[in-house]
Specification:
The structure holds two protein chains of two kinds.
Chain A (H helix, E strand, L loop, with lengths): L11 H21 L13 H12 L1 H18 L6 H20 L9 H24 L9 H36 L1
Chain B lengths: L1 H9 L3 H21 L7 E6 L2 E7 L4 E6 L4 E7 L2 E6 L6 H4 L9 E4 L4 E6 L11
Classes of the chains: A mainly alpha, B alpha+beta.
Chain lengths: 181, 129
Amino acid sequence: MTRSTIELVPTVTDRRIARHAAAAIVLTVAEAVIPLPLPGVKPGLANIVTLVVLARWGWREAVWVALLRVLAGSLLLGQFLAPGFFLSLSGALASLIVLGLAMHLPKRWFGPVSHSILAAFAHIGAQLVVARVWLVPHDGVFYLVPIFSAAAVIFGLVNGLIAGRLLHELQALEAEERRSG
Amino acid sequence: MIRVQAGWRALLRPGDWLVVAAGLALCVYSALSFWSGGAPDGIIVRAGGKVVAEADLSRARKIEVAGPLGTTLIEVEPGRARVASDPGPRQYCVRQGWLSRAGAVAICAPNEVSLTLTGRGSDYDSLNY
């Protein structure tokens, strides 16, 4: 009997996705330590990574990074297949769809801040729908809509600014490398 | 410090301000529409089980309703209503005072008159036991 070995050779893209996903997972776990005033209101710092990947490497890689983060983050926090997992999965899917559309907005006018806020609204929108249909089948959940949308604006703005700053510095770094190398 | 602030502001493109403003507008709009539950928009007056008057709560007026004991006077002001006087012996519906939440009811049982405030998002639409 011949022994067959399957060798998986990770490509450069695979390694890059893994690296970004790892950064996003670290942020997810770090964020879980922050006490939250309300279930569902959180900064979503891991989305900064998604935004940076989206701007630099495109939508497909952003999808990989975001979904890997949801999966691995929930495993680490013991949330896998719990209600919280489906809430973050639905939020991540909705915001990825919106990001896929928003990235085609004219770059001169709309930057990472717009992407971030729009994605944040998609996130809470999908989560509210899942919560209303499945977890809390009562219109009472909509009582929290104003709080969630305020959080979406504030955290969307902050995350977008951080992502914009990171992109700016990464660009400067690359320009410097090109000049010296 | 000023340069740092200018650096952050440079990250906001014109459309970004627009998105921020739209987001804030959505917050205000949703707060107004989702948190106004309980504000009444009209009244229904019944006598002997039949609806005798329906009115909105936009302007002040007085409504007189005839019952078996006499006349019940209902007073409406913008946003609230009450039973101002009633010929009943115990005056429960009068002593309830001003009603200002959707779904609130004042019942003058002896004179068979009831005053109900209507509106979206009534606290109760029915009770049973």
